Amino acid sequence: MKNNTKLIQAVAALAAAFTLAATPVSVSAAKGDIGVDWAKYQGATGKYGINNKFAIIQAGGTQGGTLYDQWTYASQVKAAQTNGLKAHTYLWYGVGGSADIGRQALDYFLPKILTPKGSIIALDYEDGASANMQANTDAILYGMRRIAQAGYTPMYYSYKPYTVAHVDYQRILQEFPNSLWIAAYPDYQIRALPDYGVFPSLPGIALYQFTSMHAAGGLDGNVDLLGITDNGYTKQPATPSTPTVTTPPATSSAASDTDYAQTGVFKPSTTVNIRTGAGTGYASVGSYAPGESVIYDHVYIRGTYVWARYLSYSGRYHYVALGVNGGESYGSRSSGYTSPVSHTYYTVRSGDSFWSIASKYGISMYTLAANNGKSIYSLIYPGESLYIR
Predict the structure, then answer these.
(1) pLDDT, tens digit, for every residue of 97-144?
(2) Cβ 381 vs Cβ 213: under 8 Å
(3) Does the model's pTM come out above 0.70?
(4) What stretch(es) of the chain map to CATH 2.30.30.40?
């Protein structure tokens, strides 16, 4: 990801004193500022590099319709404000090409945002894209419109290769100019300032994540190229060009929704799709053919269909339709099954690597990384749980 035009000159930000309150005020101009982004791996009070001015903090996210909160969000927002950083928010947006999963996520998280109105809410879209670029982009734009309607600054986060392969970023920029937050790293050495020689050459980049080693042990470092991290503090975002959001239809009826814990084996009599959530609006990631079997651990009734949940080898939950609610069955099932197989997880310790962990369990380090949605070059952190088999 080389920049073939010219180097972008970072502009040093003028320091200004300010007083902290419940909502920070009087924060310095942001263009050229260096900041960090935090998740649970940075602990309850976050982690810092040199002369940081802002922190973008994970509130939680969705992975194929499975919602999760980040337990560190509230304490990290408080720590950032206490230490004079402009606090912003991001969400893991594993929606594939489903705007309905996006709707569920935004319905859940928008009331929980703790950073000021006008501040950034970024959608982290770097995994789980569907094969349909238009659907992926529609789902992202749906989320960004919801964020803008709620009075925040929407941003899209990812890497350039992933974005080019799966997302029509020009559509995003037509509706939300200068809304990209893109990562590209020259190496994995500790780096306090950006190396613009590897700047990702895309238009509309407002934030550049230039390293995952802003401090020893791992920490993402970012530079604000346009002053966007002032939003919510000294200025408000521009009014979006398309303020009306059309909410996608829900995939189920609340009146008929129920679920219950039940283990069993399902043997389809027809080909059934494997989905990332209990509904036809969720992304299809494969299928089961007649004669194959699925060991499930939960059953959901969602409107028209009955769904079974199972834990895939990737460590993520997937879903298959057992049949029509009150109608046709898609196969046979036996309940009360107890699986003789238990899944193995490993908690990362200081000094571990993919190679050392894989060697311990007799598997390939490439398989280990892939099972956890990573590459062998991804960073792992002490306390992180990895799926082994």
Answers:
(1) 999 999 999 999 999 999 999 999 999 999 888 889 999 999 999 999
(2) no
(3) no
(4) 254-335
